[in-house]
Design brief:
The chain is mainly alpha-helical. The protein has one domain (2-272). It contains eleven helices and eight strands. The strands form four sheets. Strands 1-8 form a two-stranded antiparallel ribbon. A two-stranded antiparallel ribbon has the order 2-3. The protein has a two-stranded antiparallel ribbon with strand order 4-7. Helix 1 (2-15) runs parallel beside helix 7 (176-192), helix 1 (2-15) packs antiparallel against helix 11 and helix 2 runs antiparallel to helix 3 (64-76).
Length: 277
C-alpha cells in the first residue's frame, strides 16, 4: 500500500508535464531489442535501454549514489511526458531512491503489477477519460515482457535481502524503480500508440495473443543464438485524434489545479509512504 501511494505521487508528477509537452507532428518510434544503433554511419550510439541496463549492473542497494544514478537514468529515457518540472525533480528522485534502497535491503515493500494497472485505471476514471485509456494486467504483461528483453539486467526478477541473505520474490512483484519505469512506459503507450488505444475488451480479443506470440518468438530466437543480427520491432506511434483527446482531457483536469495543489498532493502521498522530506 505504501509503495503504491508512492506510484500515485509519481504519476501525478509526470501528468503535470502534459500541458507543456504536446508535440504537433507524427513520430515513428522503434522499440529496439538491441545493444546499440549506428548514427551517421561513423558513430556508435548507445540506446536508452542499454544505458539503463548498464547502470543497473552498477547498482548497489547499500550505496545511495548508485541507486540515485539508476533513478536518474530511467527519467532520462525519452518518455512522451517530457522531464519532471524542476521544482519537483529532486523531491521525486530522492524519495524514489530511498524507496528502492528500502525494498532491495528488505526494509520496504515491492510493487504488485496489478497495483500499476489499478493506478492507471484510477487516473483514467479521475480525469474522465475514454474507455480506451483504461488498461489491463495483460497490457502491463506485454510491455513488461518487452522491457525484460530490452533491459534484461534492470528488469530481472528482483530480490530483497533479510539479514544479509537474498530472498527471491515472486514474478508479480517489482522494485519501486522497475514499477515506475513500467508505469511511465504504459502511460507512453496510452498517449501515443494506436495499438494500446483500444477499449480493454477489444484489446484483449485482438491484440494480446498476437503480441505475446511475437515477443515469445523473438525471445526464443535471441536465447538460441539463431538471431544473426539484432532485430528491430517497431510500431507507428502517432498523435492521433484519440491521443489528442486524452491529452486535452488530462490537461483540462490538471489546469484546474494550482502548482501548490500539485505539490501538496505529492507531499501528502510521500508522507503516506513514510518517506520524509
Amino acid at each position: 500500500m505504501r509503495t503504491r501511494l508512492l506510484l500515485i505521487a509519481l504519476a501525478a508528477v509526470t501528468l503535470w508535464t502534459l500541458i507543456g509537452s504536446s508535440k504537433a507532428n507524427t513520430v515513428e518510434a522503434q522499440v529496439r531489442v538491441t545493444d546499440s544503433v549506428v548514427v551517421d554511419r561513423t558513430q556508435s550510439y548507445q540506446s536508452p535501454w542499454k544505458k539503463i541496463d548498464e547502470r543497473a549492473k552498477l547498482e548497489n542497494p547499500a550505496d545511495g549514489n548508485s541507486v540515485r544514478a539508476l533513478v536518474d537514468e530511467i527519467f532520462k529515457y525519452p518518455h512522451s511526458l517530457g522531464e519532471i518540472p524542476p521544482v519537483m525533480d529532486s523531491i521525486v528522485k530522492e524519495r524514489l531512491t530511498q524507496a528502492e534502497m528500502n525494498y532491495k535491503l528488505g526494509r520496504g515493500p515491492g510493487v504488485e503489477v496489478n497495483g500499476i494497472v489499478r493506478l492507471v485505471n484510477k487516473l483514467a476514471e479521475r480525469f474522465q477519460l475514454a474507455d480506451s485509456a483504461r488498461t489491463t494486467a495483460h497490457q502491463a504483461e506485454v510491455l513488461r515482457f518487452g522491457l525484460e528483453m530490452a533491459t534484461p539486467t534492470f528488469m530481472a526478477l528482483p530480490s530483497t535481502s533479510q539479514v544479509g541473505k537474498p530472498v527471491p520474490t515472486d514474478s508479480s512483484v517489482m522494485s519501486p524503480v522497475q514499477a515506475t519505469f513500467l508505469l511511465l512506459t504504459l502511460i507512453d503507450a496510452k498517449l501515443l500508440s494506436p495499438d494500446y488505444q483500444l477499449p480493454p475488451d477489444e484489446w484483449e480479443k485482438t491484440k494480446y495473443v498476437p503480441m505475446m506470440e511475437n515477443l515469445t518468438k523473438l525471445k526464443e530466437l535471441k536465447d538460441s543464438g539463431r538471431q544473426s543480427k539484432p532485430e528491430t520491432k517497431g510500431v507507428l506511434i502517432s498523435l492521433s485524434s484519440q491521443s489528442e483527446e486524452i491529452r486535452t482531457a488530462v490537461s483540462h483536469a490538471i489546469s484546474q489545479m494550482s502548482l501548490t495543489d500539485g505539490l501538496d498532493l505529492v507531499d501528502q502521498a510521500f508522507a503516506a509512504v513514510g518517506i520524509g522530506k
